[in-house]
Amino acid sequence: MHIKEAARRLNISARAIRFYEEKGLIDPAKDKHNQYRIFQEKDVWRLQTIIALRESGMTIEDIKQALANIEGDDYEELLYYLELQRSVMFAKWLEIRGTIEMTDHMIQVVRTKARLPLEDIYQLAERSKRLRDQRSNWQDRWNFDKQAVEHDERVKHAEAKYRDYEAALALTVQWVAPLAGERGLDIGTGTGNLAKKLIERGALMAGVDQSKEMLKRCREKLPEMETKLGNFLALPYLGEQFDFAVTSFAFHHLSEQQQVLAIEEMRRVLKPHGRICIADLMYSGAYEKLPCSGESYIHLEKLIEVLEQRRYVTKWQRLNEHLHIIYAIPIR
């Protein structure tokens, strides 16, 4: 078929097809007599794929890489590209949502005061910028993709960071006490060790992690579990999806400001009765703040204060000098 027929079949313009050709995404054969493009079924399939990936928001360069992975049957890499795109879109959606909320607040101020004080404008703008910066400033300084291969062995041999690891997971499951069929979210799920124990108790688990290699190993261990690429600061789910949210040995990778935002994100995806359980490296007023591989431990009292300010009842337990578990239930 010629370009006009291909364009009609795909419901796009011939100009768009020429653009994709110029960018090297397609290379249709040409009639040796008049040099007209000739599109075969494989070209139409490729164009359909390009259109779909473009609609998902992928860049031309990413589409090139994705197409190369498809042709090489590397669907794991293609899956990663698509999940990465979804993660980016959720972060943008949350930013837009925050801007809308800020605008609504401005509208309310104007209606109440019949004016918009400059101080209010400044504070709202600063808050919006601060939230945006917190989401964008988190970086994986620990190379979790590389750590994924040896993660379970490190846990098994109880490195200092993972001392009392199994006890922490067991107590988390005990406190959450999932009912059969309850839906839970494990954030920073890693290879799925905590999620596995909750699944064994009848929970329907989903896992979020920013490491594609951690998720790959999680899927190998728990093929029935839903996994998504993402992080604490932009959870790739719409609101009120889960009965509980858990996290183990991951929350301390966030700054104190980001921890507050992470709690807000958990609240957003939890149902009104949704509970939270965090097992991690923490310090309290009675213990010295110690670094862990360049990180900062969580301040126990401050985190409890953040939760209680949001109308949660909390309880906590110390398993060793640094490992603590906090459990939070919303006040009804």
Descriptive report:
By secondary structure, the protein is of the alpha/beta class. Helices cover 50% and strands 18% of the residues. The protein has helices at 3-10, 14-22, 41-55, 60-71, 75-113, 118-137, 144-147, 151-156, 165-176, 193-200, 212-221, 256-269, 300-309; strands at 29-30, 37-38, 183-187, 204-209, 226-229, 242-248, 270-283, 291-292, 295-296, 298-299, 312-318, 323-330. Strands 3, 4, 5, 6, 7, 10, 11 and 12 form an eight-stranded mixed β-sheet that branches. A two-stranded antiparallel ribbon has the order 1-2. Strand 3 (183-187), helix 10 and strand 4 form a beta-alpha-beta unit. The radius of gyration is 24 Å and the shape is globular. The mean pLDDT is 87.
State the total count of DSSP E strands. Answer: 12
> In terms of quaternary structure, what is this?
single chain
Q: Beta fraction of the residues?
A: 15-25%
Taking the sheet with the most strands, its summary is: 8 strands, mixed
Shape summary: globular
Q: Helices and strands: which structural class?
A: alpha/beta
Low-confidence stretches: none
How would you state the average pLDDT, rounded? 87
Order of helices and strands: HHEEHHHHHHHEHEHEEHEEEEHEE
Helix content, binned percent: 40-55%
Number of helices: 13
What is the topological layout?
Layout: H1 3-10, H2 14-22, E1 29-30, E2 37-38, H3 41-55, H4 60-71, H5 75-113, H6 118-137, H7 144-147, H8 151-156, H9 165-176, E3 183-187, H10 193-200, E4 204-209, H11 212-221, E5 226-229, E6 242-248, H12 256-269, E7 270-283, E8 291-292, E9 295-296, E10 298-299, H13 300-309, E11 312-318, E12 323-330
Parallel strand pairs: 3-4, 3-6, 4-5, 6-7, 7-10
Antiparallel strand pairs: 1-2, 7-12, 8-9, 11-12
Helix pairs in contact: 4-5, 5-6, 9-10
